[in-house]
């Protein structure tokens, strides 16, 4: 484990100081992904466990998802000014180091430190490569939401074990915690996912962030909250059984309301961001039901959502680069001029509405069974939400692809081959991993 960490740190120094080639940095992350894939056996539940670091199936899959998303970030950011490439490389390697410590750490304190440090490179991306002046307000929202729940979590950690709170996998006496400890320990993860009523920061951050920031936010940063929630629910499951109905009810209500809100959005990025909140609400429900169906369904949906939402943000960015607007009133009639791009809109929107054989379909079916096991008649409300998710994904596709074209075709720019490759590399694992579903189960 330490060998991999030292390799990442040395590579960061080399690429930040010496390398000024865009394609070399991009291919490094692809080769690093396949190195991790072939070097480490994927079907072991626990391996390389030591005092500080360890790896299980969940952490391995989330780290591999992070590597894949970072690799695709370089393809999507090809028009970045080369003068800032070294800084961009450094930020991407910092993300990889943070993901390494968050997903492979056995210490709650070490996990907490890097869980919060993750805010710094995200805010740098928003401030440094954002589009408008409102990016400072978006960064402020992100910072306040995270720090407000961070300090109670930190003081709870310190008080639980007299500053000796170390190992992540066994703390049986935490099952005797009261409601306030449970609330402070869980809210830091629920806000990051985010939970309904604490989700305002996410659309604002997506709107002001560059495409690289949106891909990292949707693809992997929201999954940090799910990863932490999974580990803490293993420790406080007794009190969770008594009060999980409150959070499950709030998630169901929030998913229903935000699904309706999606129909009234005119900004592509905001609509996709609200769609992410709805999908992550399903993940929260799956974890809170405390059964194997919910656990595997949440894991599958987190993996599928990371690829699908990232691909949709790439599509919105491709349209933004051509039309200089994210408004759905201006991005219309795309099928008349970019017919092959319209095909990719269809593929990713169909994956977002859980069309087979995407991972989202398997994840939502697992979560439906999990919710029926927990409380049988709730499946009717869940099915209503799934219908609304299907309808707003269909609305997104039809509204952007059909209608009157508002721009002169003589001034439009053709789609690059690299952009089609970017969309293909999002769609391929999202729809082909179903052939090795034992990877998740």
Question: How does this structure look, described?
Answer:
InterPro entries: NADH4_N, NADH_UbQ_OxRdtase, ND/Mrp_TM. It is a multi-pass membrane protein. The chain crosses the membrane at residues 21-38, 58-77, 84-103, 109-128, 140-160, 180-202, 214-237, 243-264, 271-290, 296-321, 333-353, 380-400, 420-440. This protein has a two-stranded antiparallel sheet with strand order 1-2. The mean pLDDT is 84. The chain has one domain (1-439). The radius of gyration is 21 Å and the shape is globular. With 441 residues, it is mainly alpha-helical. It contains 18 helices and 2 strands. A hairpin with a 7-residue loop joins strand 1 (46-47) and strand 2 (55-56).
Topology:
Blueprint lengths: L1 H16 L4 H18 L6 E2 L7 E2 H20 L8 H20 L3 H10 L1 H11 L5 H26 L18 H14 L8 H8 L2 H23 L3 H26 L5 H21 L3 H32 L10 H4 L1 H14 L6 H16 L4 H23 L15 H16 L9
Antiparallel strand pairs: 1-2
Helix pairs in contact: 1-4, 2-3, 3-4, 3-10, 3-13, 4-5, 5-7, 6-7, 7-8, 7-9, 8-10, 9-12, 10-12, 10-13, 11-12, 11-17, 12-13, 12-16, 13-15, 13-16, 13-18, 15-17, 15-18
What is the rounded distance between the termini? 24 Å
- Beta-strand residue fraction: under 5%
Q: Output mean pLDDT.
A: 84
Shape: globular
What is the H/E string? HHEEHHHHHHHHHHHHHHHH
* Radius of gyration, whole Å: 21 Å
Largest sheet strand order: 1-2
Tally of alpha and pi helices: 18
Report on the biggest sheet.
Answer: 2 strands, antiparallel
How many structural domains can be distinguished in the coordinates? 1
The percent range for helix content is: over 70%
Q: Outline the low-pLDDT stretches.
A: none
The computed structural class is: mainly alpha
* Number of separate strands: 2
